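The record is passed on directly below:
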Amino acid sequence: MMKISAILAYCLLLPSFGFCIAKDTTTKSNPEIVMFAPGLVPGTSNRVMAPAFAPDGKTVYFGQVEGSSPINIVVSYLKNSAWTKPVTARFSKNYPDLEPAFDPHGKYLIFASSRPTTPVDSLINGNWNGKEWHRKGGNLWKVSYSGKGWSKPVRLPEVINKNSSVFSPAVAGDGSLYFMRADSGGVFHIYRSQYKNGQYQTPVRASFCLDKYGDFDPAVAPDESFLIFSSPRPPAQKSTDLFIVFRTPTGWSDPIDLRQAISDKVFGVEARLSPDLKTLYFTNQMNKEGVKVTTDSYIWQVDISGLLKGHGALK
């Protein structure tokens, strides 16, 4: 496994990673890479990740760590063309919570948490990369939104939470769920559970995953025309790169490395998409000066509309 900070080891959960056989001939467009938070959102810490935007783009939830406190989910609102100082989400005040993901219709939000599964339990342990992670495991939980605000968190069924190493949800337009899971203490892989007749079906591992390596942090278009994920598989070199796959008549395409397709600055974890799909958000440890800060994590954004249009995934 590559060396990463203690913060990212918990919040981003990087295993050992994979191999890419695809070659991308796309010419780099080199769009501007801009820091989203901290910087554009006032009052954030230097350890932020995984922004989830409401469908109107005016509300964003993301993970934040302050000092020695556990990670939790905060919310900021776009008012008068400026983001408000974030406050802790009402459903995320008592336990370590991370990686929020909106339903594309804005009716509910799914997030990962190490919170107890019953009132009498303690924080759950995780097990991946051949190691037990004490009180740092993960299950997926759901909160629904109404005129009265968010509901109480509800743990997703056992078909999703097969073990205590389940993280990084992404919701498709029909309710189908993508996530990452480590089985038998191994590396993480990405799974998809079809949502049918009000129930999640048995998850199926994504075709682009390889046994030897890990793949994680999926972000999917509502129509599932493309998906972005993270992996240190080649051609990544001593880094975790972001890859994109496109839906074809026979399944997912070969992965394309976004560092090669867009810019050397586009790499990291916790991919997220803007509601209009034109902007990719991702997290790494490079600050504005281009210096790696092992104790921090920053959210960056980049325009991917050109790449998507070139592959027919955006009109």
